[in-house]
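Q: I have two molecules that I believe assemble together. Could you output structure tokens for the complex as a whole instead of separate predictions?
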Amino acid sequence: MQTNRQWLIAARPEGLVKESDFQWRESPAPSPGEGEVLVRSVYLSLDPTNRVWMNEAESYLPALAIGDVMRGVAIGVVEESRDSSFSQGDIVQGLLGWQQYSAAPGAALIKLPKGLPVPMTAFFGLLGHIGLTAYFGLLDICQPKAGETLVVSTAAGAVGSLVGQIGKIKGCHVVGLTGSDEKCAWLQELGFDAAINYKTENVTEGFERHCPQGIDVYFDNVGGDILEAVLNLINLRARISVCGMISQYNSDRPAPGPRNLANLISKRARMEGFLCTDYSNRGQEAFTEMIGWLMQGKLKYRMDVVDGLENAPRALKKLFDGSNSGKLIVQVGAE
Amino acid sequence: MQTNRQWLIAARPEGLVKESDFQWRESPAPSPGEGEVLVRSVYLSLDPTNRVWMNEAESYLPALAIGDVMRGVAIGVVEESRDSSFSQGDIVQGLLGWQQYSAAPGAALIKLPKGLPVPMTAFFGLLGHIGLTAYFGLLDICQPKAGETLVVSTAAGAVGSLVGQIGKIKGCHVVGLTGSDEKCAWLQELGFDAAINYKTENVTEGFERHCPQGIDVYFDNVGGDILEAVLNLINLRARISVCGMISQYNSDRPAPGPRNLANLISKRARMEGFLCTDYSNRGQEAFTEMIGWLMQGKLKYRMDVVDGLENAPRALKKLFDGSNSGKLIVQVGAE
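A: Yes, here they are, computed for all two components at once.
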């Protein structure tokens, strides 16, 4: 019998997540019940939303209890199947959790295609929730038009960097916000028209310099003060895609919202929230187009792969101190 | 030559508007230039947005200067016309200002129909900006469906009381917020399912009691804490029509926004601002349907007519202390 290795939630994080909020457990790997599939995880995705899942309050998913295996999206290999839709050796994705082995109902798993000209990790990038989020959050929620000004926050992140590049493909003037000069330089490599280092520059002055025509579309991953600065410069009929509010995730009592929401009225502007899961059934449409752009060299992405499940809690912190670059993934085992 | 009587802006209000922020002036009535029309005002509309117009900052209209005639929408009678589209005796509406006589370009005036089965003041209610705001702000921005729960703030106000009644016509469960027990009783007369006195009741508890199915549509006239309370109870795909943020109008530095804007994400909800002027060219559609409802007894409204232009500053304050009931109008002269 295999040994399972797991991270449990040990405590509700206060403020920034700490390694002591997790507890390591080794126990026998589960046996799949009728209709279940035993999966050995290969890659675990780390995303800002993981922090929200650790809170006591229910979000868009039920709250986890202390002692539960930490929730996480992973890709793995089917080791044993008691669901006729899956066979040993299939590659699957699902909410497998922060653990090496999981027994999951077949209905909760997605079988991934084999033989595509992309690495398996692409299912956590372009061909997964990141791609869906960037593609539909920008194109469906905001409907950007050529010549419009698009601002993206956490622009060097997995989602933000795709959003900006898709904006360029659509003919927008694209301005990204990120937290280091190295990341600013990378955004310019990606074709962004300008990048603002929000840690060293005054964001409003940056917008005034780089968005001389105002802001038509804002892809918001952070909320807070940057949202307020954007609202001061929105154009008539601006659209704000509310993808994330990372500035709010690490505090027990989130900071107040922007003082200038009334600008939505005078500018007849719209803020709209969405989740990539809303677009699961339109994945083919997005993935086909993005693979095309990738092949044409119009899309680039970076992966930040951390080796070893034991490093997952430490790695998660990178999302909140800005030290990751590109999509953050933990390699749990061999492909 | 007639004497004109005018209210000028004497000072930028700090906090609540005061009578000393206005200055009375008497001077000769103007003579219309080529293309202009001399109008004698009969009714002046007072609306919360008037307060915004007194600020130094530009809003959706250019800022006024100290010493300018206070901006206001009025209805009046054409006394003399040098624009061939208008004749003496025509009834017109426009941004005529807080004054008895104005010489306005014909192009800036709307000629009102005569002989309708409604009083002239209805052009400030159902058949004017109030009607457009309520009708399109609810039906176009929020698309309410039968069985959904609609919450309206400043529900006993001119716009709010129409919004709630239109919601009932569309089959919604309608809950109104207002500031006195007398107004709550009036809302129940209008057919609202429940009314919450936000001055004496805990708003969240009120929502929990009266919106057991959560909130699908919120018609927001106030912003601030009530918006935060609503955001805690919104359902999936909720829609928030941002009509006004009266809680913010009287302060130099508006209060922070809601701490829970991130709920827009988990609920895939939308907040959208609008101005009734966006719907000017669809007025016929709204007015025809609303006159029908009025004739069927499905819509009621109250007018609060203050006599005399000299009382306009005092009357404006009523909008912010909650002492008006129904659409607030100043009668400037005889019909």
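A: One point stands out. The longest strand of chain B covers residues 36-45.
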